[in-house]
Structure formats: C-alpha cells, structure tokens
Write a structure and sequence with these properties.
The complex is a heterodimer.
Chain A lengths: L4 E9 L5 H9 L3 E3 L10 E6 L4 E7 L11 H11 L9 E7 L3 H12 L5 E6 L4 H4 L1 E3 L1 H8 L2 E4 L8 H9 L13 H4 L1 H10 L6 H9 L9 H10 L3 H26 E3 L7 H9 L4 H42 L4 H18 L2 H17 L1 H14 L8 H6 L4 H6 L7 H10 L8 H12 L4 E2 L3 E2 H27 L9 E3 L8 H34 L4 H4 L1 H8 L6 H15 L1 H13 L6 H9 L6 H13 L7 H7 L12 H13 L4 H11 L3 H25 L1
Parallel strand pairs in A: 1-4, 1-5, 5-6, 6-8
Antiparallel strand pairs in A: 2-3, 3-4, 7-9, 10-11
Helix pairs in contact in A: 3-11, 5-11, 13-14, 13-15, 14-22, 14-28, 15-22, 19-21, 20-29, 20-30, 21-30, 22-28, 24-25, 26-27, 27-28, 30-32, 31-32
Chain B lengths: L11 E7 L6 H5 L7 E7 L6 E5 L2 E5 L1 H4 L2 E6 L2
Antiparallel strand pairs in B: 1-2, 1-5, 2-3, 3-4
Classes of the chains: A alpha/beta, B mainly beta.
C-alpha cells in the first residue's frame, strides 16, 4: 500500500479569533498535548484527514498578536517558523483572522507572510458579516495579500472543506513577502545587516533573529556573535520594532481600503449592557463572589455521587481478585498494590472534570477578562496583577497549568509573585485528602439547617488557601526588590455563548492529561510501596515464629492473623522507614503509618490516600472495605483511641493546605523562572509554614 | 497636554503622540497608534485600569500607561 502523504500545518492567530475552534473542527478528538494540559499554552497537535490520500498534522501554536518576541508564547511560535530544522517546521501556515478585527489580525498575517512559507489566510466568523454590515472583496484581498483567502465559520461549520482543499494545494501559492519594509524602517541599519548576513536567511528573518531575547539555538557561533553586536543598542531595536508595527499598519490600511467595507449599524449594545453590570463597583464583586461560591458548591455536591461509586467499585474489584485468583505474589501485587493505586487516581476524575468545565466556560464567555479588569487595582496592593486572578482560580484545579497561565502577566515581579503563591490555592490533588479526612473526623450534620458541616469545613480550607496566597504575596511584594515598568495590556473580548464542543474538548483534554500525568506517579509509587511493605529484613522473614513466641496463651486463629499482619508491616522496609521519621512528626500528632503516607505524597499529594489504602490493605484481613472505612477503623495500638481523631485530622488538613508536595509544580516553577532558586525557596518556605501551622493546630485541638 | 489618563468616560479622541519608552510594543500591535480614534468606555471601580476602544479593538490598560498616550479630544 502506498504511504499516505502527510502535510505539516501550523495554525497561527490572535487570541479570541476561534483558532482553537478551527483546530477542533479540523482534528476532532485526534489530538494530543505535549507535556502539560492547558489551552493553547503548550504544543498541541492533531491529525486531520484532508482527502482519501492525504492527511495533515496540525500544530496549534499559542495565540499571539505578533511574532515580535515579547513573551515566551511568541518565542515558541517564532522558533517553529524560523527554524527549518525544527521537526514541526510547517509545509503551510494557516493564519486565523476574525472578520470584525481583520485589521489587527492582519498585522500577524503580514509578518508570517514575510517568512516566505506558503500561507493561507482564514477569515473566521464570516456568518456574522451581514449582521455587522461588513463586505469583503476576496479577489482584491487575495491579490494584495498575495495569498489564498478562505472564509469560514467555525461556529456553523462552514468553509472547512474549502480550507482542506486549499491546504492540499499549498504548493501553488505565492511565497513572496507582502511587505518589504526593512529598508524603510532604517536604511543604514539594514544595509549593515545585509552585509553581515549575505545569503543564508532573508533580511526579515535575520531581523527577527536579532530581536530574540534569547538567541535561537539553531544558529552558528559566528552568527551568534554578529547578532550580539546588533543587539548592543537595545533601545534602537525597540524603536525599530515600533516603527515596523507602524509601517505594517500603514500597508494594511491601504489594502483594506480596497478590499474591506463596513457600514456600521448601531445594533443592540450587549457588550455595554453586560459590562455595566459585570464590572459594577458593587454588583461586579458580588456576582464574582457568587459565581465562585456556586462553582465550589456544585463541585462538591455533584461529584460526591460518582466518587462514592468509584471508591466502592475499586474496593470490590480488589476483593474479587483476592478471592478468585490463586494466592501468590502476582495476586498480592494486583489486589494490594495496583488496584488500590488506580482507584486513588480514578476517584479524582469527577471533581477535576467538573472544575475544568466551569473554568473553561468562564474563559469561553469572555467573563474572565472582566474579572481581571475588576480586580487589577485591588490585586496590585498585594504585589499581584489583575491577571493573577486567572492563575489563582485555575490553581483550584491544578497548579501546573495555572503557573503556565501566568505567562501573559507582562511585569516580571508580579508574575514571579503569582508563580510563588499559586500553589497555596487548594488544587484538586488536595481534594481527595481533604475529602477523606473530613469524612472521617467531621460529623455529617447540618449547621443553621442549611449548611452541611463537612461542606463548611471544606469551604474554610479553600478560603485559608486563598487568604494565605494573598498574605504571602503581600510579604513577597515587600521583600523582593525588582524594578520594572509595569506594563499591563489586555484585550476585552466580545461576550459569547460558550461553544459546547470547545468546552467538552477542553475538559477531556485537561482531565486526560492530568490523569495520565498523576497516574504515572501514583501507579509507580503504589508498586514501590507495595514492594517495601511486603518485604523486609530478618524480623520480617521470621515473623510467624516471632509472633508465635510472643503469644502467652493460645489465641484463636483470627486474632493471630491480625497480630501477624501488623507485626509484618512494622518490620517491613517501609515500617522501618516510617519508624525512623516518627519522632519528627509525633509533635504534629502523626504515627509512623501516616508518616509513610506523607513521605510518599511528597511526589504528589493525592498519593496520600492511595498510600494509606495500600498500607491498610496489606495489613487488613477484612474482605470488603472502602478507603474511608479503613481509615475510620484505624486505632492507636496503645491507647485504643481512634487514630484519626479531631486533633490529628485537623493537623493533617492544615499540613496539606500549606506544604508544597508536588513534583510537577516544582518542575514547572523551575521551567518558568529558569532557575532552581525559586522552586527551592518555595519548597522550604511552604514546608516550614506547614510544619509550624500543623503543630499549632494539633496543640490547639488536643 | 491632554492624555488618555484624563479622559472622561464616554469621551473620544485622536491619538497624537505616544511616549514610546513607556508604551509596550504589544499595545501598538493591538492598534494603539497615532492617528487612530480612541474612546474611554469605562473605568474600573477603583478608577484604574481603563477600558478603552481603540480602532475597533477593546482593551484595558493601567493609568500609568494611559498617561503616556497623548490625544486631542473630539466632540460630536
């Protein structure tokens, strides 16, 4: 069979142009995200069927207003489009524009077009042209822009087939630049550039290489030197970038005069009306608080049913395997290591999916920008930006995409503080820990007849998370000395109804990525734990003999088995490890078993639950028990008190609220701050706060 | 001298000059250029940031940036 031809396609466009919708339309669910979840934050790729013989690999690049590298997102775009050796270097670029903001969108288009790669211009939301009084002369636009122009409507699924056909014919398009403005920007400067870089790159590409903050990694040492020389006068470079923008707009205005007409009709002013309410000095804040409250309430109420179901199901599966498979190493690994481990992952899915759903809806509707507008001045008092609100809210789902979402905070100090405090917000990995401990120590009663006490405690923990983040930000703001212009520019997009398709895809994508990422850690830790708990030095191997020798009178079998099991656990490798750290954690009210759970959850918090599940299931001889029942049944062997009583439980809750127990967060902070300094400070800072706060809590409740 | 920072809500103007040292490049890229019309749509509750309409693009900037965009007011 003949190998199917594959065309590499890059999707580029301004934010809010429907680029992600187009990506979803082209690829359906055949998408995968590199590394971490997050909409248009990291490299997103999908496979698209263009015709029976031809397929396409579509890369959805981050949304940007230009390719001038002023942030990391633009650098990513530039690196793929400049470096012909990059594995994602496209055969054809599709620039997505939107009919209402065509002028602004064309700035990016003219830059991309000048890179001399076949480029197709897609004008989205063409179904709105009539109602907005816009008419386009496609012939003129195609001639002036020297490219193929396709009208689509991602909302109504119009024009997608035309686009596919245009992509197939990519080789037939003119690749000459549309704006040869380099010499008009500064004749002398570009003559020198031309002399230094004669042939290898076009003049415009060389210019882009010069504007990069960090040298591109595909250029030679010699070229690097030359670029360094040109960059010596950084003020001049900035001035030239400004001039480039002005010249490009002049050209675009000329072109649009010929090919774009608009008869402005004063329609119903939905934007003005909604803005008045949503950013009102009283209703604005009130509505925001109300929306947050409603989201958290529904996350808990809606998710509790599937969570209970998942918890019980896994306990049953585990038990079924134990009973029906022949006794042995494999059965034990499966029923005591792997299955409880996987259960510890799956139990998250409902809450994470619901939380991601609400965040996606808020982003899609355009409401998030209003919140940023509303909160900016308030947040600045704490050294944060209005844009920090989005990371702090999405931090309730997962700190990793939240920290990546700080990239659009232009001021470095505000961004750094946001990165450092975001892990204080209650992420979904803390949820299972909170949920299980609360279920064991807090009675399920009603307060004032409307609030569920367990829900109330959960609410308070969320508030503690937010409050600590804000207070920590204020302290950091006073301590960190970085002087920088605080640039703040944010587009206020149109209000629109969320596309169910986009929301659905986002939820699937983020949940999947989370489960896979967290799953890998949890599963491997579960297996290691099982191994450490089922093996040990001499005392473990001779357990049966030693326990028998201890027996004074002849106990009946059942009691003996139980004694044997706990003796074994205590003398296994993990037991020895736990006993070693016990003195350090005893002041917080924890025993060595909890200690093991805490150690193992330093890679990821959610491991806490599955670790306890693994430990107790190794020990327990009971047939069916959910994780919750096992925790509730656990006793202090000396005092015969419940192990998870109020002081210990509260102390654990507080410990988990503050400690930075997440390998992924540490990795992402390292990546985003480009040093080990900040993640290390963050890790030890949060660890100290957690230890002290847990100690105080334990002593307060005892 | 009249700047965007001392416009009143609902007022319109034409951008005459930008102090480039204090204006980020991406503001220009979004269409905030000399000669373009600018309208103050709304102020945030604490009088900052400013919600503007520039050349058919809606955006928000802080007062400290708005101070560096000079305008001549136009009256309908």
């Amino acid at each position: 069979m003949k190998k199917i031809e594959e065309i590499k396609i890059s999707l580029v466009g301004n934010p809010n142009t429907g680029k992600t919708s187009l990506f979803n339309n082209l690829t359906g669910l055949n998408q995968k995200v590199g590394n971490y979840p997050g909409i248009t934050v990291d490299k997103k790729q999908g496979i698209c069927k263009l015709s029976n013989k031809i397929g396409g690999i579509v890369t959805d690049l981050p949304g940007t207003y230009s390719i001038n590298p002023t942030s990391i997102d633009e650098s990513i775009v530039l690196d793929i489009l400049l470096n012909t050796q990059n594995e994602d270097y496209p055969d054809v670029v599709v620039v997505v524009a939107e009919v209402e903001n065509l002028k602004r969108n064309l700035l990016l288009f003219t830059q991309i077009k000048d890179l001399e790669i076949p480029t197709i211009l897609v004008i989205n939301m063409s179904d709105l042209m009539k109602s907005k009084g816009i008419s386009l002369n496609l012939e003129v636009l195609e001639r002036e822009l020297k490219t193929k122009v396709i009208l689509v409507s991602t909302r109504k699924n119009i024009g997608i087939d035309d686009l596919k056909e245009a992509i197939i014919n990519y080789k037939s398009y003119d690749t000459t630049p549309v704006a040869s403005i380099a010499h008009r920007m500064d004749h002398e400067f570009f003559e020198e550039v031309k002399a230094q870089f004669p042939n290898k790159y076009s003049l415009y590409k060389t210019w882009l290489l010069i504007t990069q903050h960090q040298s591109a990694n595909f250029i030679t040492e010699d070229e690097h030197e030359k670029i360094h020389h040109f960059r010596s006068d950084i003020k001049k470079i900035e001035k030239l970038q400004h001039r480039e923008t002005i010249l490009r707009y002049a050209l675009i205005n000329e072109i649009l005069k010929k090919g774009y007409q608009i008869n402005r009709k004063e329609g119903t002013d939905l934007r003005g009306f909604l803005d008045k309410i949503l950013t009102h000095k009283f209703f604005g804040y009130f509505l925001f608080a109300f929306i947050l409250l409603a989201i958290f309430q529904s996350v808990f109420n809606l998710a509790s049913y599937p969570m209970d179901f998942i918890d019980t199901s896994f306990a049953q599966i585990s038990n079924y395997l134990k009973v029906n498979l022949p006794d042995g190493l494999f059965t034990s690994l499966l029923s005591e290591g792997i299955i409880p481990g996987i259960g510890g992952i799956f139990i998250f899915i409902p809450q994470i999916a619901i939380l991601f759903f609400f965040i996606a809806v808020l982003e899609e509707t355009g409401y998030m920008s209003r919140v940023v507008f509303l909160m900016d001045k308030v947040m600045r008092r704490f050294g944060l930006s209005g844009k920090s609100v989005i990371p702090l809210i999405s931090g309730t789902a997962c700190a990793v995409p939240a920290i990546m979402a700080t990239r659009n905070i232009n001021n470095w100090k505000e961004r750094l503080i946001t990165i450092l405090v975001t892990p204080f917000t209650t992420c979904s990995a803390r949820l299972p820990v909170y949920a299980i401990i609360i279920a064991v120590i807090i009675p399920n009663t009603m307060v004032f007849k409307i609030f569920n006490l367990q829900g109330l405690v959960m609410m308070i923990l969320y508030l503690i998370g937010f409050a600590t983040a804000i207070i920590a930000a204020y302290i950091l703001h006073k301590v960190i000395k970085i002087e920088q212009h605080s640039f703040f520019v944010m587009e206020m997009p149109n209000y629109k109804l969320p596309s169910l398709k986009n929301v659905f895809f986002t939820v699937i994508e983020r949940t999947k990525a989370f489960v896979v990422d967290a799953g890998k850690i949890i599963l491997s830790i579960s297996i290691i734990l099982w191994f450490l708990a089922s093996n040990g030095p001499d005392a473990y191997k001779n357990a049966e003999k030693l326990v028998k020798a201890q027996q004074v009178d002849n106990l009946h079998d059942e009691h003996f088995e139980q004694q044997l099991a706990s003796f074994k656990l205590e003398n296994s490798y993990i037991g020895i490890l736990g006993k070693t750290i016990e003195p350090a954690i005893a002041p917080l009210g924890y025993d060595w078993k909890i200690g093991i759970a805490i150690i193992s959850s330093f890679a990821a918090r959610e491991v806490f639950v599955s670790t306890l599940a693994t430990i107790y299931s190794v020990e327990s001889e009971e047939q069916i028990a959910t994780i919750k029942e096992r925790l509730a049944a656990e006793e202090n062997p000396i005092t015969k008190e419940k192990r998870f009583n109020l002081p210990t439980g509260m102390s654990l809750l507080i410990f988990y609220a503050f400690a930075l127990q997440c390998a992924s967060t540490i990795a992402i902070v390292k990546r985003e701050t480009k040093s080990w300094k900040w993640p290390i400070i963050q890790f030890f800072g949060m660890g100290t706060i957690a230890y002290v706060a847990a100690f105080l809590t334990y002593n307060f409740f005892i | 001298m009249c700047t965007v920072a001392n416009m009143l809500v609902g007022e319109k103007g034409i951008i005459t000059d930008l102090c480039l040292d204090h204006i980020p490049l991406n503001l220009l890229e979004m269409g905030c250029l000399p000669g373009n019309e600018i309208e103050l749509m709304q102020l945030a509750p604490l009088k900052d940031p400013l919600y503007l309409k520039v050349d058919n693009t809606y955006l928000a900037i802080r007062k400290e940036t708005a101070m560096h965009i000079e305008i001549t007011k136009i009256y309908d």
